[in-house]
């Protein structure tokens, strides 16, 4: 129990360390947007300027610039339509329905994106219900929203989270998951443990979330290196993560098939040999080595060498059908990870021992 609590605290602290730059961006950007709207634009209560900063920076982690633009423009549209109409027709239930419907209809005609339409509608609700009748006009509030959006993007550019750290943390989660699945499958073969193989399969089925989070984190990292001069020098190191993204996803998908077939093989008359478990462990260790080398900003030479050694190994003899499938999946995983190190698919495939090659006696 104490170990589990300690792991949870460590995970929370790690998450805080990753998100701390965004918190600073929100805090500093909100204050700056408020000052700019008051001092430069002359607005007495620029409520939407800091709000737009929070929206912009908050969605910036894990989303694309296009979605940030949709949010900011959607807020501006909803605020403008809502405030202008409320100043003419007043506030009330039917006015609220009219304002929201019109704001969302205009947003749909302009863009059609669900996020854009929803943001326009919610901003119109805010104006029509919480802030009607103030001295500020609709155009002023639109200007406040746009000001906050611009400052939010500037905050991401000038006070960015480390794109390399974001990508490294999330790829680490993917490769850890791959390594764990292979280790569990290897142990189930060694112990002839069907229950352990079933647990490994359940673990493998949850790994797609890690892949999706890595994909999102990689988009964020690329976005930061694009808009922030402070991190332009990170582009070469980040390119290695881009190279690894698709092959690592494929490796994890093949690992799920491998574990499923391992479970089936343990129920056959001739279970898979322990030599397969050894090969699985070597691939698992190579995945962790790939993780370490990429995190260090190096070309993953050692991981590539380890994978080539596994790929060149001869296959065991006299295997059942399921064991043959396991070997095929393990070969595919090795090729996927070789591609993740930067090797071309054809070259990685040629490194495998030919399937029709005579086996050693």
Automatic annotation (TrEMBL):
It is a multi-pass membrane protein. Coiled coil: none annotated. It holds the Pfam family FUSC_2. The chain crosses the membrane at residues 12-37, 43-61, 68-90, 96-118. The keyword Transcription does not apply. Keywords: Membrane, Transmembrane, Transmembrane helix. The keyword Mitochondrion does not apply. Its main location: membrane. It is found in: Membrane. Residues 33-154 form the Integral membrane bound transporter domain. This is Aromatic acid exporter family protein. It comes from Nonomuraea spiralis.
């Amino acid at each position: 129990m104490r170990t589990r609590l300690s792991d949870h605290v460590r995970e929370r602290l790690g998450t805080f360390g990753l998100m701390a730059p965004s918190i600073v961006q929100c805090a500093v950007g909100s204050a700056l947007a408020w000052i700019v709207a008051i001092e430069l634009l002359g607005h007495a209560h620029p409520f939407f300027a800091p709000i737009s900063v929070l929206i912009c920076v908050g969605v910036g982690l894990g989303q694309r610039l296009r979605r940030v633009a949709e949010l900011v423009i959607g807020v501006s549209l909803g605020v403008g339509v809502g405030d202008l109409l409320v100043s003419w027709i007043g506030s009330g239930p039917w006015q609220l329905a009219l304002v929201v419907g019109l704001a969302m209809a205009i947003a749909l005609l302009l863009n059609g994106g669900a996020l854009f339409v929803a943001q326009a509608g919610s901003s119109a609700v805010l104006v029509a219900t919480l802030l009607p009748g103030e001295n500020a006009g609709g155009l002023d509030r639109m200007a406040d929203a746009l000001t906050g959006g611009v400052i939010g993007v500037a905050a991401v550019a000038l006070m960015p989270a480390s794109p390399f750290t974001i990508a490294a943390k999330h790829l680490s989660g993917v490769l850890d998951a791959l390594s764990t699945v292979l280790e569990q499958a290897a142990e189930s073969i060694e112990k002839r443990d069907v229950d352990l193989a079933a647990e490994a399969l359940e673990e493998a089925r949850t790994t797609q979330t890690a892949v999706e989070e890595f994909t999102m984190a990689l988009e964020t990292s690329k976005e930061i290196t694009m808009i922030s001069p402070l991190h332009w020098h990170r582009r070469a190191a980040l390119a290695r993560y881009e190279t690894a993204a698709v092959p690592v996803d494929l490796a994890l998908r093949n690992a799920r098939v491998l574990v499923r077939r391992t479970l089936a093989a343990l129920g056959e008359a001739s279970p898979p040999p322990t030599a397969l478990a050894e090969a699985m462990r070597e691939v698992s260790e190579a995945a962790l080595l790939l993780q370490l080398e990429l995190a260090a900003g190096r070309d993953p030479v050692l991981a590539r060498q380890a994978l080539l050694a596994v790929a060149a190994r001869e296959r065991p003899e006299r295997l059942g059908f399921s064991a043959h499938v396991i070997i095929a999946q393990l070969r595919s995983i090795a090729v996927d990870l070789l591609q993740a190190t930067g090797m071309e698919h054809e070259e990685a495939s040629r490194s495998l021992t030919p399937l029709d090659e005579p086996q050693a006696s």
